[in-house]
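Progress note, project year one: complex with iron/sulfur cluster.
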Amino acid sequence: MQPTTEPRDAILVEKTPLETYVPPAKPSLIGLSRTELADRLGDIGVAPAQRKMRVQQLWHWLHFRGAQSFDDMTSISKGIRAELAEHFTVDRPEVVAEQISNDGTRKWLLRLPSGDNVEKAHEVECVYIPETDRGTLCVSSQVGCTLNCSFCHTGTQRLVRNLTAGEIVGQIMVARDRLNDWADREDGTRRVTNVVMMGMGEPLYNFDAVRDALLIVGDNEGIGISRRRITLSTSGVVPNIVRAGEEIGVMLAISLHAVRDELRNELVPLNRKYPIKELLQACRDYPGASNARRITFEYVMLKGVNDSLDDAKLLVKLLKGIHAKINLIPFNPWPGTAYECSDWDQIEKFSEYIFNAGYSSPVRTPRGRDILAACGQLKSETEKLSARERQALRAMAMTD
Ligand code: SAH
Ligand code: SF4
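Model obtained:
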C-alpha cells in the first residue's frame, strides 16, 4: 500500500460552527446487526419469507460496497428502496473537519447528536495512520473518558457519553468514504487494513456497543477486517477482559505503563480498583492468547518516571508466562502536561533490555503529533486551539 501523496499539513474540511448542527431526521441503518435489520424490514412491511434475502442484499450494499444512498442499491427492488428511504438513512457521523499531518496521518473530527438532547451535538475524533504495508484506523469508543490517566489528554475531558455501535462502525465507514476505500477500488488494494480501539474513551466501559460494532467490522461478508487485525486497548477493566476474549475475539492490548502499583495508581488511577496482579491474571486467562496471538503491553515512556532499567527488569519478570509483546510508546506531549518524553537513548536501552530478554519490543513511531492526532492526544476541543497554540504544537512535535 502506498503512503498518501496529498499536500502536507492541509486542512481539507474547515470546521463549521457547532450552532449550525442539524440533527438527523431519521435513524441510520449503520451499526445494526442482521437480526435488527430484519426487524426494520419487518417494520416497513417486508414479508417474513423475503427478509433473509433482503438482509443479505442490504448487508452487502452497506458494508461491502459502502453505498451512500438507497438509490445505489440496484439489486433491491425500487419499491423497497423507496420505503427504506422514507424511514431510514445510511448516514455516517458528519465529518466537520479533516486535517492531514505532515507525515500523512489524517484526523477527522466527527459530529454526532448528543444522547439526551437531540438539538445539541457532540464531537469525537478518529485517526488514519498510513504505513508502507498497512493502514491503521484508530477508532474512538466514547466522547471523552471517565478515567483520568495523568498522562492522557483525553482523560482531561470528562465523559460526555458512550458511542453507539453505529457511531463506532460509522468511523470506519467515514474513513473508507474519505479514502475511496470500498470494494470497488480499481487497483484492488485496501487502505484501511487494521483497526485499533485506541481513540477516545475506554472501550471496555462501553462493552455492548463496542462488541456489536466489532462483530460488524470483522464480518467477512461486509467490512471484512479480520479479527487478527483488530486490536482493543484497555486501561485494565479486569471483569470485562475475559468477556472481550469470549464475545469479541479480537487482539488485546493492555495499557500497563508501570510495573509497581504505587506508580500505576498515579498514572492509571483505575489501578486502585484493579491492581497489577489481578490485571495480569486476567491476561493469563484471556481466551485465545497464544504465541501467534500475543497480548500487547503498551508502555508509555515518561522521562524519569517509569523509564529506568529497574523498571524494564521488573516488567520482564511480571510478564513471565504470558504470551506477550511490549509496545513502547514515546510520550506524546499536549498543552498543559507536566510530563516529558524519555530521552531516545534511554528508550533504546529500555527496549534493548526487553529484547534481550526475548520479547519483541518495537518503539511506536509517533505519528501526527503536529495535528494532535498521536496516542493520547485526542480531545474533541482541539479545534479550539488558537493559531499560536497550533504553531507551538508543531514546534513541540518537531523537537521531540
Ligand atoms: N482507553 C484505552 C484506549 C485509548 S488510549 C486505553 O487506555 O488503553 C490508547 C493508548 O494511548 C493507551 O495505551 C494510552 O495509555 C496511550 N496514551 C494515552 N496518552 C498518551 C500520551 N500522551 N502519549 C502516549 N501514549 C498515550
Ligand atoms: Fe481514558 Fe485510555 Fe486516556 Fe486513560 S489512557 S484517560 S483510559 S482514554
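Confidence is low (pLDDT under 50) at residues 1-10, 382-400.
The pocket of iron/sulfur cluster (ligand 2) is lined by residues 145, 147-149, 152, 154-155, 201-202, 235, 255, 376 (CB under 6 Å).
No further modelling is planned for this target in the current period.
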